Amino acid sequence: MNNKYNCFDTGTLQLKCTNGTYVYVNPTAVETGQLQDLYVSGIPPAPAAIAVAILTTTLSDILQLEKKEAQGKTFVINGHISEVHAYKEWYYKACPACHQCVYEKKSGWYCTRDENLVKPSNMFRLPATITDGTGNIEATVFDKVARYLLNKTCDELLEMSNPVDAFLKIENQETQYHIQI
Ligand SMILES: [Zn+2]
């Protein structure tokens, strides 16, 4: 299995520029949204609503699976970020409406869905190592998860004098990750 992974939060679809196996953490999928609601509310959805098997597992077990065994399944791990690679690019310019990447024009910005924008938002895309004690994955933690961990929006963090200092505080914070391959 390729060693490059991709973490998704809900609501943001990202372009990925490497080939290989993608691991999606907290992907945008109906059942993931329902699971997150369940996690927050404790109220289970209708039985028919969860169509895929949800398996709580470990990173080492996931990493040992053949690609075709793992594809299409959702795994839940309890893990934490062991390191945020803050020397890499850790945020991007996004459309405030749909959270897609936007393109800079001569004047202003452009979203392929919402067209012309005056001002984009900044959104998190943290390159990080996630571990659960059994294995590590190199992943990208997207905006919703990063906002939850940091308790700040990306715009708020960028207003601070040393924004990357905040990343030290989220390392080792235990979180449940939904992984889809
Ligand atoms: Zn948009």
TrEMBL record:
Q: Which residues form the Replication factor A C-terminal domain?
A: 77-165
SUPFAM superfamilies xref list? Nucleic acid-binding proteins
InterPro entries assigned: NA-bd_OB-fold (IPR012340), Rep_factor-A_C (IPR013955)
Any Pfam family: Rep_fac-A_C
Protein name in UniProt: Replication factor A C-terminal domain-containing protein
